[in-house]
Amino acid sequence: MAAQHYSWSNPRVLLTFSLIFLCGALVGAIGITLTTDPAVYSPASSQQELSRNLTLSNLSRELDLNESQRERLSKVLDDYFQYYHALQDQLDEVKASGQEKILEILDETQQVKFRKLVDGVQNPAPLK
Q1: CA–CA gap between residue 103 and residue 110 (Å, rounded)
Q2: What is the DSSP code string of 92-108?
C-alpha cells in the first residue's frame, strides 16, 4: 500500500492543526486562571491599590504569614500607601507652583515653548 501524503494546503490538515492550537491555548488559559493569585487580577481603584494588593499577596506567600500577620500587614500597607499618596499630592502641588512662577517670568512665545517642554517631559513619546 502506498503512503498517503498530506499537503499544508489540505483543509483537513489546516483544520486539525488549528484545533490543536486552540485546544492548547484554552488549556493554557484555564491553567493560568486556576493557578494565579486572585489578588493580582482583582479590580483596583488605583495604581496604588493594585500595588498594595500585589505587595500584600507577595509578602503573604513568600513569608508564609498567618491570618493575624496578614491583617496587621494589611493595616501597615494601608497607612504607608495613604502617606505615600499624600506626599505625591504635595509634590504635584510644589511642581505646579514652580511652573506657575516660571510662566510669570516668560513672555507668551516662551510660555508656549515651556508648556511643550514640560508636556514632553511629563508625557514622553513612546519609542518606535
Answers
A1: 8
A2: HHHHHHHHHHHHHHS-H
CA distance 109 to 99: 15
Spatial separation of the C-alpha atoms in residues 106 and 101, rounded to whole Å: 9
One digit per residue, pLDDT tens: the chain, 128 residues?
555 666 777 778 778 878 888 888 888 878 777 776 555 554 445 556 657 777 888 888 888 989 999 899 888 888 888 888 888 889 889 888 999 999 999 999 999 998 888 887 766 666 66
| Statement: the pTM of the whole predicted model exceeds 0.85 | no
**Is 111 in contact with 123 (CB distance < 8 Å)?**
no
Closest C-alpha among 77, 44, 85 to residue 58 = 77
| Cβ-based neighbours of 77, under 8 Å, separated by 6 or more | 52, 55, 56
**Could you tell me the residue ranges of all domains in the chain?**
43-95
Cα(46)–Cα(103) distance, rounded to whole angstroms? 31
Residue type, 25: A
